[in-house]
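Run log, item B.
One chain of 736 residues. Sequence copied directly from the ordering sheet:
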Amino acid sequence: MKRAAGFVTACVLSAAAHASPGFDDVRANWRSSDWVLLARDGEPLARTRIDKSARRGDWVALSDVSPALREAIVVSEDKRFYEHAGVDWRGAAAAAWGNLWNTRTRGASTVTMQLTGLIEADKSAGRRSIGEKAGQTIGALWLERTWRKDQILEAYLNLVPFRGEIVGLSALSQTLFGKAPSGLDEREAALAAALVRAPNAPYAKVAARSCVILRDMQALHGVARSVDPCVNLDSYVQLTLTRTAAAPAYASGDDALAPHLARRVASEVHPAAGARVRSTLDSRLQRFARDTLARTLAELNARAHPRNVHDAAAIVIDNRSGDVLAWVGSAGGLSNAPEVDAVLAPRQAGSTLKPFLYAQAFDEKRLTAATLLDDAPLDLATGGGLYIPQNYDHDFKGWVSVRTALGSSLNVPAVRTLVMVTPHRFAKTLVALGIPLSRAGDYYGFSLALGSADVTLASLANAYRALANGGIARPIFDLAEHRPTSAANRVFSPEASFIVTDILADNNARTRTFGFDSVLATRTFSAVKTGTSKDMRDNWAVGFTSRYTVGVWVGNADGAPMWDVSGVTGAAPAWNAIVNYLNRRSDSRPPPAPPGVVQTRVTYQNEIEPARSEWFVRGTQMSAIGLTANASQTARGANADARAARIGAPTDGTIFALDPDIPPARQRVLFERADSGARLAWRLDGKPYGHDARAAWLPWPGRHVLELIDAKGEIVDKVGFEVRGAFAKTASAASK
């Protein structure tokens, strides 16, 4: 009989073996209800819920569970867990005896038996039948023969349902206590264990159960405490459990280091529940940037001098690879719109576009860093009236060099430069840099020099990265496994990029506006530009070191103006802190001079500026600069008359409209050039059109290309324009 009984037992356990998965299988099949954005080193940056049926966190190893919780679970659910072989026969007998005499006793299900039920695919609700109990018993015996005790307890803690939709210890710990399971104390552990027995019980019942567990844990150690562990437990339990009803879809704290980037990734990649998406972000840098911005906002809103600024954002890019190393869309706490990702929100650029304007002027050989520009009141006629630019400090500096004009962020010289470059061509340059302008250059007009266009912090910082990379624009990447191939786009020459970089790194060039001891100066090499938009609604500091590009924005996401906040007082301190953090272990060095630049000693008439060594694009260098010479020639070099000539009218991108009330034969478009005395010729749509410095052309509807040609047939200057009218003809027909 004993042999037969043993045979039956073996058969039953064998059947259970085929029905029950192994520990590794259970762990591998676990799926979190969230997808997780990871840093480049694998640290979680943000957790976003996908599965709405239950809230499950990551699988937690038993070694990462606090000793207090392990003890509370055993005390509460299975006191002899480490002694029995799956079934607590003594407890089962006590439960049966209590049921016989209709007394309240603890249930006889062990942790192992409960785990068997959790693993089953078809769990039934409510009280289990005798057959189901028997199945649990057999499954528990098998688990104890094939699993270790630590594996059983680990799986149980990960699979057991808690309150509401919460399943598993990881989700419970983060939702109720805002911490990892390893950090739970005795009171938190007792509350968690109490929820296992009655997950959705009223607050009072959960508190009473927690009190029993706390006292059992105290008795287990045989230590009598002077303070009752159940003091104020009722209010603590009620306050803690209310958090389950308002648990957000996005985690908080260090599990939400990059929530804005996570939202963007979710909208583009659509990760599934349980997915782990690796980003390019550096977790330590991300945390430092977030905390730095929060500290900056707190300082700006100190009680003595509140500045009405509630939002800030930052981005850090690796110059070489284009990897985004930090992406802080909002600094949080004080924000009126914390969900807005200020890294991608279009905001007015302010003076941050000036470096690109001067780089284009250098490439077109209209200016050099030594050229003098008049910082004096300027009235420009526009379609809407007069445009009268002002400087930041409402003061004018008179004649200044381009180096001083850019370094000190003077507005009038920038507008004079844009008159030469034209808004249409400058807008095309900005688009080539990756700055997505919503309108054509003519829409913004001359105010484009002062940043009237809306830009994003991400695109603006990447445009500065193009300067750091010698004028080559490339895309940025924020996901490690999503790097679409994209060709590099050369926007500026290495020579123009180098000279602009040298100016942005020159602390002396900033002194006219910012003083010598400004927060823009860093311990090692950096090139930086600040900007403030109209009515102080946006504040920028963007620049780069030899290895990183850093962009910081400060303002209000709802568009409210700040109070007395400039680029130096708002965004620059945070920018400076991030740059110094990046260079804490290595020095940043200035870029080497490319072969196409030369350094020349320059002196100024009447000592308008001190004599200095200046960088020039080769062929444009000058040694003596005065007002007469400066006014009569641009940056094309003193000995090249032909190269000094440019098309004065029409400007590139001009649109002419034929007036139907004027006879066609009476309408003319004037071609004018800044004549240097050299023999030059016009060429319209590929055909010669005379040599006069001023020519009147009978307009024909269509798109046209006007070129200025020297004696060798080389193009000196070229513009495109369009004529619109009721009787459109092709450009070729118009030029005949």
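Observations after the first pass:
- The chain has a mean pLDDT of 83.
- Residues 435 and 460 are 6 Å apart (CA to CA).
Flagged for discussion on Thursday.
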